[in-house]
Design a protein that fits this description.
There is one protein chain. Helices cover about 60% and strands about 0% of the residues. It is mostly helical and about 220 residues long. The longest helix is centred in the C-terminal third of the chain and has 25 residues, at about 190-210. The radius of gyration is 18 Å and the shape is globular. The model has no long low-confidence stretch (mean pLDDT about 95). The structure holds adenosine-5'-diphosphate and nickel (II) ion. Adenosine-5'-diphosphate binds near residues 24, 135 and 140.
């Protein structure tokens, strides 16, 4: 099978797996991460095939939707094995998937390859800006979280366990993750794109608070 065939089959598989999602992790999230990763790759030096496979498969084993026994992305690995992808490529893709997720403000990023840096940046770009705002509230609704709770303050989670078990309001998620992403981008290309998306969120939060406090109502 050619690399192009493998990518096409993987895209078809993922499209079908993620089609019914309403938590902000639908096929179109995967599609945007895939396309953005390709664009970032054009400005950086890395292996496009590994990047594309990792982008397409990055959320298949996500802890938010799977009960994980260990860190191995079992579903992604099984899929790549079923297509007889070279084991050294499968290992690299699985390593990226294992380390892609944000795990809390104070938790170290273990990503360690140029391909991984790019896919992580593409995923994080989709968590910020106008789309990031929409996805955060979609996820909050999916998890029955309140929009905002003035009595609960954001927390800087120091461990993945704390972050994972947090039930805080969606507005807190901006302070606990989304507003921190701009300075956590790995590549210069993504850092540049993130600046503008970050500003959109800052403006949005300011307007949200003004409306919440009735500042724009006479
Ligand atoms: P990651 O694996 O880094 O979490 P994802 O591609 O799975 O990245 O997408 C994470 C997105 O899910 C966030 O950017 C946000 O939109 C949403 N999300 C995750 N946790 C929360 C939360 N506690 N409150 C609101 N949205 C959340
Ligand atoms: Ni994602």
């Amino acid at each position: 099978m050619t690399q192009q065939d493998i990518l096409q089959k993987t895209a078809d598989y993922i499209k079908q797996e993620f089609s019914g999602d309403s938590s902000g992790h639908d096929w179109w999230h995967i599609y945007r991460v895939w396309k953005n990763a390709i664009t970032i790759c054009e400005h950086e030096h890395a292996d496009s095939f590994i990047i594309q496979l990792a982008a397409l498969l990055h959320d298949l084993d996500d802890w938010k939707f799977n009960a994980a026994e260990d860190e191995t992305p079992h579903r992604a690995k099984a899929w790549l094995d079923s297509l007889s992808v070279d084991p050294s490529i499968t290992d690299k893709v699985c390593n990226i998937i294992t380390h892609i997720s944000y795990k809390g403000a104070g938790v170290e990023n273990k990503m360690d390859s140029p391909e991984g840096f790019i896919v992580q940046d593409a995923d994080r770009l989709d968590a910020i800006g106008a789309i990031g705002i929409a996805r955060a509230f979609a996820y909050g609704g999916y998890k029955n979280r309140p929009l905002y709770d003035p009595d609960s303050l954001p927390e800087m989670h120091q461990t993945f366990e704390q972050y994972k078990n947090s039930k805080s309001a969606t507005i807190n998620h901006f302070y606990e993750k989304l507003l921190l992403l701009k300075d956590m981008m790995n590549t210069n290309t993504a850092r540049r794109i993130a600046e503008q998306r970050h500003e959109v969120m800052v403006q949005y939060l300011s307007q949200f608070m003004d409306e919440w406090e009735g500042k724009d109502v006479e």
